[in-house]
Amino acid sequence: MRKIVLLLGLFIGLLSVTESSAQIKYGVKGGLNLSSVGFDEDVYSINNRAGFFVGPTVLMATPIKEIELDASLLFDQRGVETETSDLQGGRPYKTTTTQRQIAIPFNLRYNLSPESNTRLYVFAGPQLGLNVGKKESELDNGDIVFDTFSFSMNVGIGMRLSQHIQISANYNFVCGKNAGIWINRQLDSGRQVNKSRFNAWQFSVGYYF
User: Fold this and answer.
1) What is the CA radius of gyration of the chain?
2) Mean pLDDT of all residues belonging to the chain
3) Closest CA to 66 of 113, 23, 22
4) CA distance 31 to 147
5) 122 and 133 in contact (C-beta within 8 Å)?
6) Which of the residues 11, 12, 77, 81 has an alpha carbon 20 to 30 A from that of 103?
7) Distance between CA 61 and CA 41 in Å, rounded?
8) CB of 49 within 8 A of CB of 79?
9) pLDDT of residue 88
10) Are 77 and 53 in contact (CB under 8 A)?
11) CA-wise closest residue to 37 among 154, 152, 153, 173
């Protein structure tokens, strides 16, 4: 809970830095995560699964009319199904792993059509993540272990359809790696055998009040 409060304070702090000099619109956004996760396929077969994200968002104008800033505080869920080549009872062993995090993306937008009511824009920026789900998820012969914090980047394109509604698509990719597979984690002989990133393609709809 303390870490969630810390991230909430950071989000509010980011807004206060620009609020005195920028026009701000408040809203909500939500959408679909299509996971892009890879492990060593000599060990596991991967079937990436759909997830979702939702939360409040803000849009901040800048003195340069082509450039805007947006920030959000999102509950983000993404997952993956792993399947081992080892057979148990004559069937492959499958496990579904879900990552849940509080995510704060902070993006810089460049409007390609600033004079139009329908604005096409491109955007990019950093994202902070705090894992709030299970830290470990069991596999048939090990555990997937998530890092508590992650740092990632977003790159995407979007369109404001009106003063209130926008749509966007982006790729969120972790800088470094934020998940690992461990064998015999609870024993002295435990070892990490694989590391991966829980990346995602994201498609969203936002509404500004």
Assistant:
1) 19
2) 80
3) 113
4) 24
5) no
6) 81
7) 46
8) yes
9) 53
10) yes
11) 173
Residues paired with 95 in a beta bridge: 82
| Region class of 114: left (phi > 0), else alpha (psi between -120 and 50), else beta | alpha
Euclidean distance between CA atoms 99 and 187, whole angstroms? 24
Question: What residues contact residue 113 under an 8 Å CB cut-off, 6+ apart?
Answer: 119, 120
Provide the CB-side half-sphere exposure for 195 (13 A, CA).
Answer: 8
Is residue 63 classed as helix, strand or coil in its secondary structure?
A: coil
Note the pLDDT tens digit of each residue in 116-141. 777 899 999 999 999 998 777 766 66
Half-sphere exposure in the Cβ direction for 62 (13 Å, CA): 13
Residues 6 or more apart whose CB falls under 8 angstroms from that of 48 comprise 34, 35, 36, 37, 79, 80, 81
Q: How many C-alpha atoms does 146 have within 13 Å on its Cβ side?
A: 25
Q: Would you state the structure tokens that stand for residue 34, as one six-digit string?
A: 């299509």
Q: What's the helix, strand, coil split of the chain in %, to 5?
A: 10, 65, 25
pLDDT of amino acid 158: 96
Confidence at residue 84, expressed as pLDDT on a 0 to 100 scale: 66
Structure tokens at 175: 């800088």
Angle (CA) 189 193 197, round 5°:
140
CB 30 within 8 A of CB 76: no
